[in-house]
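Cont'd.
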Amino acid sequence: MITTDAAPFPQAGRVRSFVDFYLTTMRTAVATQFQYRAANYFYMLGMVAEPVIYLVVWTTIAKSSGGSVNGITADEFAAYYIVWTLVRNMNVVFGAPFWEWRIREGQFSGQLLRPLHPIHYDIAYFAGWKVVVVTLWIPLAIGLSLVFHPALHPTALEVCVFIVAIWGAYLLRTAIQETIGMLNFWTTRGAAVFDLYMATELLLSGRLVPLQLMPGWVQTLANFLPFKWTFWFPIESLVGDMSTQSLLLGLGVQVLWIVGMFTVFRFAFRYAIRHYSAVGG
Amino acid sequence: MVDPVVHVAGLTKVFRVPEREAGLAAAARSLVRRRWREVRAVDEISFEIAAGEVVGFLGPNGAGKTTTLKMLSGLLYPTGGEARVLGHRPSRRERDYLRRMTLVMGNRNQLQWDLPALDSFELNRAIYRVPREQFRATRDELVELLEVGDLVRKPVRNLSLGERMKVEIVGALLHQPQVLFLDEPTIGLDVTMQKRIRQFVAEYNRRHGATVLLTSHYMADVVALCKRVIVIHHGRILFDGALAALADEFAAYKTIGVVVENGAAPLDAYGEVLHREDERVILRVPKNETARVAARLLAEQEVLDLTIEEPPIEDVIELVFAQQ
């Protein structure tokens, strides 16, 4: 029978429960994506179109400039942009503009009612989604490699750092976009800020071109912003020739940015839900 | 003395909404100077609900019912006043609280749209940290009670509105909440489905001793489930008491159903004729004259049958709002 005494939330096995939640949500995401196999392949083809354009442009420029641009050869461009396709798929997150949809459709209310911060669902769901996209990515990467002949000879350490760095990029991008998403609690025009973010990211992350090709002052500016740790660093950790110290330092900086951005998100979320009007249900 | 499960004192919610006149000039003016209006959706309401009670929360659209439920479930931050449920302050959204309550909103889907409901149930098990054995027992019990055994394996998107509502309820109760906030749980459902859900809520309340606060525009839901009702209008509570007492307080009339030997006899002299079907006539008479009119009918007509009834609850509710 009911009493008003508070039954404590089970603390025993808290970590196990957390892992159980993440695995169950990831399984749910995989099962959902399997419902849309054809749509996923079209999505992947769309995702590959962007780097292939960059790749064709830079390869052509390199070949017409005596084999390289700023010391980057056509084969190295191929390696950069083929790894780019994996990094891009890995750092797809619950985007800031979708917060408006989530609120309007009443989905956010449902998530707020759960005894778990909504961010965990986003992280777990999109992590599960990666299992599907990475599986679909493999044949595309093989096809691109056969056509463009990438120069890719990573060491074991570089592979290990890359694996950690792409998940770091995923978490950092999640933290940034979720924080921007909080603007939807104050304004219905959060999309404008998101557009500014996307433009800045495009230029300062290594998404458009390898940062080595940017002017010096842009490279310096990029060092003080989080964007390069979501694209350039994971890609360079695998295709570049970074020292062990640079690789580990890069992971450390990534961790600092992740902790910093999630701290900002936490405060933003706390204030945002006070403004929540639950209009969508 | 046992603490109430729900304690609300002076609870208030004020929304600040932008407003402007129509037209381009007004749009341009609003760029420089935006006008705001304060809407008191819930205005200093107070009530308590004891453990195991099923209470109907009634009011017209925009009365403040859903806003109140959202504040009690922690979705909305109150502007003022105090709310405590199971000893928790809902706005703090503590995990211990959230796992002991549920809010079910009619026409709102919280299940995974593309997957069978069983997958969503499994996800809820993980979210609410329900031990697997308890989860299986509860799920099977709820599936049996709501007779959805053949539905939970279909993708949710393939279910009808009523079917979806039933599996939605299963998903919302898998963690065996002690407090149920039900916001229009039968909205849009056919009569049979409404009845099934009513029976289920009554059975869940009986089996688990759960406390229920229910809003519904279908008075059949309220009559079947709630001994007590709280009536809210313009954000303020108009009535809080037994459902049976609602008519006493607000209805100024009663209805007399009468069958006389000469079915065609005019009965306008006894009261307002509301309805005439075959030989049965329904009269509306002022409450304080009911006994006298009934006596006159018995004395002056050859009465075959006579019943005195409170007006239908729908009419009483309409009267309550009309008097405001």
